[in-house]
Every structure is written in C-alpha cells, then in structure tokens.
Amino acid sequence: xxxxxxxxxRALCRSVVLAGCVMAWPAAAAEPEAMTTPVVAEVTASTTAxxxxxxxxxxxxxxxxxxxxxxxxxxxxxxxxxxAPGETPKSTVASADRIEILDECPDIDAxxxxxxxxxxxxxxxxxxxxxTERRVVTVKRKGRMVKVTxxxxxxxxxxxxxxxxxxxERVGRSMAEYVIGGMDRSFKLKLFHTLHxxxxxxxxxxxxxxxxxxxxxEIASGLKAATNRSYHGGSLRGxxxxxxxxxxxxxxxxxxxQRWVATEQLWKWVDANGKSFGVGRPYLDRDPPHVGPVDxxxxxxxxxxxxxxxxxxxxxxKRLAARQEHHAxxxxxxxxxxxxxxxxxx
Length: 346
Hints:
Blueprint: H1 4-13, E1 22-26, E2 39-43, E3 62-63, E4 98-102, H2 108-122, E5 126-141, E6 144-159, H3 163-171, H4 175-179, H5 185-200, E7 205-209, H6 214-218, E8 246-250, H7 256-273, E9 279-280, E10 290-293, H8 297-345
Helix pairs in contact: 2-5
C-alpha cells in the first residue's frame, strides 16, 4: 500500500514545469491503452486565438499545473511605483506559449531538476551590498586644518548574473547541471514541494543561488561563509551533489520595491509553512533568502540553540517557582510548630 507522503510526492512530481512549458501526466490508474501514444496540445497565450481543448481527463487520472516561466529579464534600475496598502504586487512573469504533454514522467529527478531550474532562470540576479570607500578629507584639529583618511560605507547594486555561468564553465558543466544538479537529492525534493506550494499560493518564488563550489563561494559578495565551509556545496560539506542550501526571492512586482515587499511575504510564508515540507530559514533576518533542510546540521546549529535557550529559561522559572513554594511551606510549618510549643509550655 502506498503511504500518503509517497502518493503526494509521486503526484506532484508528475506535474512539472519546464522552461516555457506546462507538463501533466495521467495518474497510474489510467488505462494502459490510453498511455501508448502521448497526446501533445500546443496552447498559445494570444487572447484572440481560439483555445485548443486537450482530451478530457477525470480528476483521478490527471494532474495539471499551470505555472509558467518568464520570457524577459527585468532591468536593474527601475523607478519605484506606489502600491496601495494591502495590494499584492503584480507578477513580473510574462505570459508565454505553453505545451501540455499528457504522458508519464519517465524520471522524477529530471523533472524536479527542470522545475527548479525554471525558477532559477526567472529570478533576477540582483542584490545590494555594502561597499567601503576611503577618502582624504580635511578636518580641523587643535586650531589647524589637517588632511586625514576616512572610510565611508554605502549600499550599491550588485549584479551577479555572470558568476554562476563562469563557475559552471570552469568545471565543464551546463548551468542546470551546476546550479541544480549540485544540490543534495533529498533537499531538492523538499525544495520542490515547498516552492511548488508557494507557487500555488501565488507567491511566484524564484531561486537566485543553488549549488556553489569553492570557486563560486570565493567570488561571492556580501554576507557569506568561508570559501570551503558553505552549505551551498563547499568542499568541507561534501562538494558537488551535497549542496544543502538555496537562496529564494519572489518575482512578483513590476519594480524592485514591489518585488522586495513580495519577497518578504514569501519568507514569512516559508517561516509559517516550510517546516511541513522540511525546509526552513536557518538565519532568519541575518541572511533572509537562505533556506535549508530543517533536519540538517545548519538549521539545527543556528535555530535549535534558540529553542533550547527558551526551553531552559522556562525550566529555570519553573524550578525557581517550585523552590519558593517549598521555602514558603517550610516557613509555615516552622511557624505552626513554634505556636504549638508555646501552647504546651503555657
């Protein structure tokens, strides 16, 4: 008998989004005669063309996902447009042609990899980093004007689109093989379930970073681990095929300001729902996009201590309360004994 978890994994992995495609396969209960030849139906995104109706399938024999990937890349600099309070930012994902393939997924791992890589391709590789600049300035000291060197820090835009392709080319792998193939298999399945559910919730998740080897970690900017200690796949963690981390954002919104609001919503959703899929944010606000398996070393090391501290504080309060109750009871007993002794002597 198939467990509910196995059924969910199998059902979801039969509905995988390829770049520019939507794939759906019939369930195992379908008749063998109906699976001999796959039926392919091309669906265009034009609003004037008459839509083609694929062969009808019952809910028990078909599972379809209507997620798509973007056909354009957003510019780095955009003017922030106002968003009404409570309004969800509009998605930057453009409507694209889709192909529905009504067939069985021959390889679950390959389908999961393609889905995750589609999310990677649609995410802009932009962030903010702190840049320190040293300038010579003139200041007044003890009535005299002197020149001193001061350090100034500012936030600047960082486009790291070129880094993953360069790292992949360096080891002779394709982008999909490098970024997604380098991650641990069990973590990829957990990440697939998490982001698939987030996509269904309308949060439009995207992946900005997957596997990183030592070279890729070395050229990374901003907040990062040591070159060989990254849980993204550093050599100390096992290297290629053992990546246990990814960075996620939302592509909802027409501007960077709107996408930032949508990304914060995605992170909050992961905090509230990710554990049910086995994925969480180990560092919370210290490295918000970073996610990893909740049963992994990284999550236990950075999140479990906080839980243990809270439990220890609760235990401490209970112990102090019990001690105070014990002392109060002991004093009351001493008072009663003293009163009884005075009565006898009197």
